[in-house]
Design a protein that fits this description.
Arc Repressor Mutant, subunit A; Nucleotidyltransferase, domain 5; 5-stranded mixed β-sheet; 16 strands
Length: about 650
Amino acid sequence: METDPYIPVHQAVALTGFSRRTIFAHLSSSKYVTRPSVETSLNGKTQTLIRLRSLPDSAQLRYWQRELQSPTSPKQTVNLAETPESVRTEGLRRLPIVQAAHEIIISRQSVAKRMTDLALQHGEAVRTIYRWVKAYRRGGMPGLLPGWGKKRGRFTALPLELQKLIKDDYLNPNRPSPTTVYRHLIEACQHLHKPIPSQKTVNRFLRTLPLPAVILAREGPRAWRAKAEPKIHRDFSDLAVGEIWVGDHREFDVFVRLSDEPGAKIARPWLTAWVDLRSRACVGWHVSVVPNSDTIALALRAGILQFGVPRELYKDNGKDYRCHYLNGHSTVSKAVQLSAAMQAALQPGILSRLGIESRNCTPYTPWAKPIESWLGHTFPEWEHTLPGWCGRDAKQRPEKLTEEIKRGELLTLEEFTSRVAERIGQVNRQEHSALKATPLSLWEGVTKEIPDSRALDLLLMRHKPCKVYAQGIKLFGRWYWSDDLMLHIGHILDVRYDQNDIGRLIVFGTQGEHKGRYLCEAIEREAFSMHASREDLKQLAKQKRAARKAAEQYADHQRVIYNEDHVLRELVEQSRQKKVVNLGVRAPAPRPAGRTVRRLIGTEQAAEQMRASTHAAPSSRATSVEYEARSRLFQELLED
């Protein structure tokens, strides 16, 4: 029930007994307090409402008598034993006041004066006592119990409809400011004929809104995941030292000169780092101008040569961490028939060759990488002490930076790298609050599997499947050649190269007996001119003859393997001829040995090797019985 209600004109006529003309005359003379209604009538105009307290006392009495004598609702049942003692005490204090007020109202004698006296006696307002009477008539004793705590968590300084307007306007992806929201609220209140709250009240209401809901509505789901989504706390105590390394990039908030020359370019360098999860030690790092897969490999190389090979890498989900160079290609379905070139392309990256497992963190979740906290407490405060500090963005950029650049006080990239080395070494030797020890102390006594540096450098070279053409291997728009490639023309080989020295290629086999084996080192080959010299042509002819000879020897060797009986008979024929000549006896002209035998047994050493091969273990293509029969045949023919 309203304690200070406003009533329409027709109800004021009924309560006062005045005519409508008299009521409107009082309205025009401002005798009554009025305000427009919220809702409009059928003609589209607002209705004039009169404040009840501005009417005569008799009219007010009639109004409250009708209100108090209205039908009551069923009494609500409340267990007073379960209510708080303070609430129960307040209800019992109100009961006699309500009973006395009820008797005054029923008597209808000097009600207004007696109610005023009753209110002054108990230190309450008259309208408050009327409200208690109404509540008691509707609910009995439970209606007198105060609602202490029932409005806890509710903002009562604004009506609910205005709260809804403010929330709908503020929780918007356009991110309006509180001032803009208040300006829109003023326009809405003027249209609805409602009192306008203060801007301070609106700002207080905005601060009561749940922060996760504000972030989700104004900034989006990605910001909500980063700022308000529940996170977990990880325990790394069950890991072994050196078991898992986590890596990431970070751009320094410092400008450096790329060289020591006058007018050299300036840039913000990047750090690529690997941190061991168990010891929190930075095991490998590299400073560069642009981070990429090469800087990742260089940082990994530095860590492996000092701390050994880790078991697993937990890395960022960026393209440079997911590249073919580090991880190789994913395995395709076995039902798909792949060409030889495609099979060669689906080769492992450097991590699998090192025996390192790897996994990527969830995309767009930097908090999932523990290295983020290490980077956060290692460098930001330290960077403030360096010349060239520029802040994280333009808002934080200090004024002194411009003068430092003009005076040439910036560090060179080399000097800055040495400062970074000192800083990382200092952090590795400091006691960690969670470990209660220094990161490097946890590595004492740990067995480190450190590979050979030259072998590691070869393994870390970039590799690419390349086809061997008659002109050689084509890469970077250049041709590379080695005589050892003669028998591999038309094949796909694994080519490794150093991006800083592309004048030579390291070639490995990819199939058959050469799979995974070192084949040769191919050198960049200059293109022949139309006016080539005689020496160039001689060298080309020599290479052609060598290629022809290598192909023929390979084919003859295969014939020996597949036609052993024929080769044995030719060997015996040559041996007979040799024995007859030594005895001085003229023998009939022997059957000429084939070209295959002449090339394979051209020297005594080759013959001895072939004889030795007849006493070797039988091949997979001949049974032991056939082998023994051929051996007896060879001995009988030689003794004959």
